[in-house]
Write a structure and sequence with these properties.
By secondary structure, the chain is an alpha/beta fold. The protein has nine helices and 16 strands. It has a single domain, classed as Acetylglutamate kinase-like (Carbamate kinase).
């Protein structure tokens, strides 16, 4: 291979830029919520796996929490099971919950584990039911308006909210050199299974582990201002102002709420990044400019 001084200079600059961050975050826990297009497109899946393995190799403790809504919907359609939603939440009866567990705890989880292991990592797949990781209860959904005199309670089945997190199984895996890959399924008080929003699981796991960072991978560049441009960094007060004036709305609101709750629980910072940017995870953690929006 012919020596290229320009390429060599670029490589040296990148390594020098990354070194302070590697030193700073060595030994720290980083929880990554993995979803969106980064979880569907083959090239992006490969790069994500490379990024997570590299984080582990340079001394960080990455923990992956994944979603799988599109994959669940696809299998339900193939099985001729209707998908119904209330307030954006999938109605999850017993039959649908069986499919959710099959997809999240099996197909999707094991594909991610296999990718990480193929790229040199030591990944282990678990659900929130393993080791008592996530204790949950049925999520209560209220519907109001119209001719209703009082809010109506809607039963959406096995959709859960987190009661508590027992992190023993995760800390033991990371201490032994493994990368935990968590499917967002929790256990009820009688052992029943609950489907839980993956952002919520990632935020709570980060909170209970006192994580240095929570990274939420999305299909958008981050939090956008009124002109549609990415905001690089926000404080809690600035976030609340953007919510009040309507700049932050609709699909971004749940992620923002997850971010604020994680920060209140002691997480160092939250990054909302575009998973469609190749190696966005490394760019966010190891470069001066980063990508997406940092909330701290």
């Amino acid at each position: 291979m012919t020596f290229d001084p320009v390429q060599a200079a670029t490589t040296t600059r990148v390594l020098n830029e990354a070194l302070p961050y590697i030193r700073r975050f060595h030994g720290s826990t980083v929880v990554v919520k993995y979803g969106g297009n980064a979880m569907v497109e083959e090239a992006l899946k490969e790069r994500f796996a490379q990024d997570v393995v590299l984080l582990k190799l340079v001394g960080l403790n990455p923990i992956v929490v994944h979603g799988g809504g599109p994959q669940i919907g696809e299998l339900l359609e193939r099985l001729n099971i209707e998908s119904r939603f209330v307030n954006g939440l999938r109605v999850t009866d017993s039959e649908t919950m069986d499919v959710v567990q099959m997809v999240l705890g099996g197909l999707v989880n094991q594909e991610i584990v296999s990718l990480l292991n193929t790229h040199g990592g030591k990944a282990v797949g678990i659900t929130g039911k393993d080791g008592g990781l996530i204790q949950a209860r049925q999520l209560t959904v209220e519907q109001s308006g119209g001719d209703l005199e009082a809010p109506e309670i809607i039963d959406i089945g096995h959709v859960g909210e987190i009661v508590s997190v027992q992190t023993d199984v995760v800390t033991k895996l990371t201490a032994a050199g493994f990368i935990p890959v968590i499917a967002p399924i929790g256990a009820g008080p009688h052992g029943e299974s609950y489907n839980i929003n993956a952002d919520t699981v990632a935020g709570k796991v980060a909170e209970y582990l006192d994580a240095e960072k929570l990274v939420l991978m999305t299909n958008t560049p981050g939090v956008l201002d009124a002109k549609g441009e990415t905001i690089e960094e926000l404080s809690r007060a600035e976030v609340e102002a953007l919510i009040d004036d309507g700049t932050i709305s609709s699909g971004m609101l749940p992620k923002i709420e997850c971010a604020l709750q994680a920060l209140s629980g002691g997480v160092g910072s939250v990054q909302i990044i575009d998973g469609t940017v190749p190696h966005s995870l490394l760019l966010e953690i190891f470069t001066d400019t980063g990508v997406g929006t940092k909330i701290s």
